[in-house]
Give the backbone structure.
Amino acid sequence: MARDAIDLLAGPHVSRIRECAHPDCSRLFLDASHAGRRRWCGMSACGTKAKSASYRRRRASSG
C-alpha cells in the first residue's frame, strides 16, 4: 500500500487528488471523472447527504 501511495504522489495524477467536500468527511480520493470536477468521495454517503441538505435548504427558503 505504501508503494502504491508513493507511485500516486509521484505520478501524473497527483493534481487529481481531492478532499471530500462534505463538512463531516476528511477522506481523500482520486478524481478520475472526465471533467475533473468531482466533489465527494462517494455518492452513497457524502454526496447524497450534501444534495439532500441542499434540497431541504432550498425548499425551506422558497416556502
Helices lie at 2-10, 43-62. DSSP finds two helices and two strands in the chain. The radius of gyration is 15 Å. The mean pLDDT is 90.
